[in-house]
Amino acid sequence: MAPSGSGAVRSGCRRVFYWSPVLFISAIVVWSYYAFVLQLCVVAYLLVYHVLLFMFVWAYWRTIFTRPMMPLEEFHLPPADRQLLEREDRAESVQEVLRRVAKELPVYTRTASGAIRFCDRCHLVKPDRCHHCSVCNKCILKMDHHCPWVNNCVGFSNYKFFLLFLAYSLLYCLFITATDMPYFIRFWTNSLPDTQAKFHIMFLFFAAAMFFISLSSLFSYHCWLVCKNRSTLEAFRAPVFQHGPNKNGFSLGASKNIRQVFGDEKKYWALPVFSSPGGAHPFPPRPARGSQTWLLGGGSSETESDGGKQRDSRGKRGTLET
Questions:
Q1: How far apart are CA 86 and CA 92, in angstroms?
Q2: Which sequence ranges form a coiled-coil region, renumbered to this chain (predicted)?
């Protein structure tokens, strides 16, 4: 059914709202280009500046427009099982349907109660590190977070691009701050000519320094996550294996953890091109957890639901998954 007029207006307003952070960042970058190149420019700085600007825009573009990767068809419930699940009244029978679907899938993690991680919105068994995004309304592989500054989910398909976006924006702000500082000092000592450029030089320094400080903490945090092979969600809620939660359950050592994101070929590490290994689903648990079982057939009679943790009149229960 087509949306009503008021519904279409609300939907349009939401889309505009979601894109406003991206437009804000784009406007800041365009203005910084004007302030640096046309008002401050020293010829010797131009080459470095434009290289950093190009890499920053390239990484930002890839982060925004790379579609999040969703689980393969094999993780979705077949139509017959989906209908059976919807009709089933007994929790044991519901769990049996999920066990039959999940028994051959490469999944190690489960809910805190030992249940199969099942999304009742996407009707699929969740692969390891997969979470349902309430903004995108879909399950995202290795979801890290939904970022309003890129109007996109950051996950398996674009996490490398997101890291490079942070890195190049950090270098971009650092370069502008460093090259603008002598002119900023001259401004405060009243030795700079009183021209229109004074405002741009002053504001450019403050804006670049402010973003540099903010990005430093965010980039450092994500570098730590990469070295630990964790996502932002996993840093707040450790993945659960057969023997319980383990915050280091996917850590393979710092070197291998970095390669899980950037790939084995170092020549591609600094470029916003996809080089993450492993395909869509294989995120190997650390070798020390060799006793982890490869699937959930022996789990509890509870299933995980994105709709919240509740037991309805038919006896089903689920756990909210971010």
A1: 14
A2: none
